[in-house]
Amino acid sequence: MCIFSHRVKEREGLFQRLSHGSMGQLEGCEAHDLECPGSNPGAALTFTLDHPQIFWRVAHNQTNHGLETIFFTMYLVLLLLPTLGTLFGCFFGRAMGGRGTALLTTTAVALSAFLSFIGLYEVGYGGSPCTLTLGRWVHSEAFDAQWGFLFDTLTMVMLCMITGVSSLVHLYSIGYMSADPHLPRFMTYLSTFTIFMMLLVTGDNFLILFLGWEGVGLASYLLINFWFTRAQANKASIKAMIMNRVGDVGLALGIFGIYALFKSLDYATVFSTAHLHAEDLLIFFGYEVHALTAIGCLLFIGAIGKSAQVGLHTWLPDAMEGPTPVSALIHAATMVTAGVFLLARVSPLLAYAPIALQVVTVVGATTALLGAVTGLTQNDMKRVIAYSTCSQLGYMVFAAGVGAYAVALYHMIIHAFFKALLFLCAGSVIHAIGGEQDMRKMGGLARLLPFTYACMVVGSLALVGFPYLGAFYSKDLVLEAAYSRGMATGLLAYLLGIFAAFCTSYYSFRLLFMVFWGESRTSKAGILLAHEGSWTILIPLLVLTTCSIFGAEGLKEAFTGLGTPFWGGSLVAAGGLTQGFEAELVPLSAKVAPLIATTLGATLAYLVHLGPLRKMALAALTRSQSVRTFYIFTNKRWFIDKIYAEVFGWTALFFGYHVTFKTIDKGLLEVFGPTGAKFSAGSLLPVLRLRSWTSLPHYASVLAFCLILLLLSLLGPASGVLSLGFGPDEGFALLLAGISLLGLAV
Q1: Please, are residues 423 and 384 in contact by the beta-carbon 8 Å criterion?
Q2: pLDDT of residue 171
Q3: What is the DSSP letter of 313?
């Protein structure tokens, strides 16, 4: 949708001016002038050209030119502030100290968040998306990539979520990491992560998206491995890097396929011409496949890695080895949502790839189930919340798979509120009792940490979908969209989502009961140390609690209301689907099923951990082979890590040592390479150095012979002296040169 701001008194000459510009060359565009409600002469009008995914902003008089300059500067500053904070922290962090670096980076990200909310009002509610082009990046023949940034509604929603949660995490880190001597480095890493994520969502072409994608992976490695003296942190960071590299291969191949098909990586070009390539084929590994389906599946492989979907999800729980603010930043609002953003961004391509959407739906539903079931028996507090993140990401992904992108993004925003709250509350508990994370060694902390307990209750209720809180709106809309899809994959996603909601309710209340209720199992030292955090820890908790309570209701109509113009042309539903309308026709039984599942899960958690079924559950765990097998199987995370280690890890190590190292590096390359030549020459020299050659005539004759060979090797190919009648003469000349030089060396 191309949007032009203009004034009423100048609209008569608008189309004459457009006809002389590049916009007049667009074919198939219809112009409509929409008068703002309650406007007076001179008030702003919006002229719309129906051309999906292409955005321009044009100023037509001195007043509008000033406004354009202001907004141009705002969007530029929005990106530069975190970048400057990162650079200052990197080069002057030691000089500024921990407090100085923390204050600088937090202020920079907070100001960027403030500008993001202003931009969201202008772009989302004001209907004025724009692009910002800084210059050319790569130009090679037909390939031309610009440093361009797109600020549409999808981008601004992501920016508000990223910068908003990141600023709260920065503030929280000041108190949580106050005793760490490497606080400047930590704050710099946080800002680096933020700016790469902003780069990922704001780029107007796939090349900038890929740059931000890789930068986020690098920053996550640095953050997870912040305490690099811990072996587990080293292994977790390497695991996260490798898992994401596997997904990045798919993303890179998808981008290659886009360029091969569209001859461009620019969003505007690719999305506006997608319908022209709806039936094109692409040769992939020697087979002809539907081009957009193959591209969609390859891009989704990248999303599987970043958004921790089944198969490449094992890095996410292990990332708990980083500091708690890292968990909140990575798992709540930034890195793991990159895959969902990618699916929403390429929705114009997926609209012509129904098979790819079915794959997305099945993988997302499977992830929702796997994450929820695994979280049932985890004992590490942060690991339970991490598997909850896997499960909720599955909801977002299968919502995108059924074409309900607006609902997926709505759930993503609401999830960012309560999941960041849960992680920061977990960090507050861990910080208060001296670093303990095992829930079996907690209990009765509600009396010692009342504020943290209240915030954790709100976050848990928002997660399970308690009426009028968080997921009660967003998760139910996801399930209704899947049910209304009217296909087998949609029904499968709905059923798995219902069971995942039951499991989510169980492990959420299990966490509350084990940590805050019942008898205290905390050590005496932990009880003596228990205290609420400083104001830098409590303020982010209060803000996120407020957002978890009121955010879902406040954003519902704008994000998912029927006929809402909020998203503009940034989202394209597959095949013109109208899930928003169809979801209203879902039977009442399908609407209340998630609430029933949530109630059953909470009731079972109470009965098993605090009620009359507690002793029975312990007896079943110790006596029943099937119950014990289920507990071990889920507690050990379905043994997926062991399978990967046995099938891929040890195989790669064996191949790397016995084949590439011993056989090739230390075998063939040393025998036929420089090392072998050195030893061969060394063994040949004693034979050539005979006692009878010690006289001067012998040396002179050998020297003359070698010089003749050297001259023949240099002049022979040109003069034809060395013509042998077979093969290239240059090879024989090179051999003679080698023999002559060896003789001269002797």
Answers
A1: no
A2: 92
A3: -
- DSSP state at residue 517: S
CA–centroid distance for 288 within its chain: 30
Query: Largest Cα–Cα distance in the chain?
Result: 113
Question: Which is nearest to 271 in space by CA: 354, 352, 198, 210?
Answer: 352
Closest CA to 51 of 277, 351, 344, 271: 271
Q: What is the phi/psi pair of residue 230, to 5°? A: -90, 125
Closest CA to 117 of 84, 163, 148, 71: 163
- The upper half-sphere exposure of residue 194, i.e. CA atoms within 13 Å in the direction of its Cβ, equals 39
Gap between the Cα atoms of 78 and 121, Å rounded: 14
**pLDDT confidence tier of residue 740, bands split at 50, 70 and 90:** low
Dihedral over Cα of 212, 214, 215, 216: its sign: positive
At 733, list the tokens: 């000349």
CA atoms of 556 and 700, how far apart (whole Å): 97
Confidence of residue 699 (pLDDT cuts 50, 70, 90): low
- Residue 603 Cα distances to 61, 504, 636, 667, 735, angstroms: 65, 12, 25, 66, 86
Sheet with 44-49, edge to edge strand ranges:
2-7, 44-49, 31-35
- Asked if 162 contacts 194 with a C-beta cutoff of 8 angstroms, the reply is yes
- Confirm if 502 and 582 have CB atoms less than 8 A apart: no
Q: How confident is the model at residue 300 (pLDDT cuts 50, 70, 90)?
A: very high
CB 436 within 8 Å of CB 380: no
Q: Which pairing describes strands 281-284 and 143-151: parallel, antiparallel, or unpaired? A: unpaired
Q: Are 413 and 157 in contact (CB under 8 A)?
A: yes
Using alpha carbons, select from 353, 598, 379 the residue that is nearest to residue 470. 598
What's residue 745's pLDDT?
A: 53
DSSP per-residue string spanning 586-635:
S-HHHHHHHHHHHHHHHHHHHHHHTSTTHHHHHHHHHH-HHHHHHHHHHH
What one-letter code names the amino acid at 85? G
Angle at 181 between CA 180 and CA 183, to 5 degrees: 70
Is the Cα dihedral 417, 419, 424, 425 positive or negative?
Answer: positive
Q: What are the contacts of 587-594 at 24+ separation with CB within 8 A?
A: 590/479, 590/480, 590/483, 590/494, 591/476, 591/480, 593/479, 593/498, 594/465, 594/475, 594/476, 594/479, 594/497, 594/498, 594/501
Question: In whole angstroms, how far apart are CA 186 and each of 4, 183, 190, 193, 243?
Answer: 43, 5, 6, 11, 23
How far, in Å, CA of 350 to CA of 398, rounded? 13
Strand-pair category, 44-49 with 130-140: unpaired
Structure tokens at 656: 């790397």
Residue with tokens 């209907």: 127
692 burial level (CB within 10 Å; 0-12, 13-18, 19+): exposed
CB 374 within 8 A of CB 309: no
Report the distance separating Cα 476 and Cα 91, nearest Å.
48
The whole-number average pLDDT for the span 401-419 is: 91
The DSSP-derived string for 22-59 is GGGG-SS--EEEEEPTT--TT-EEEEEE--TT------
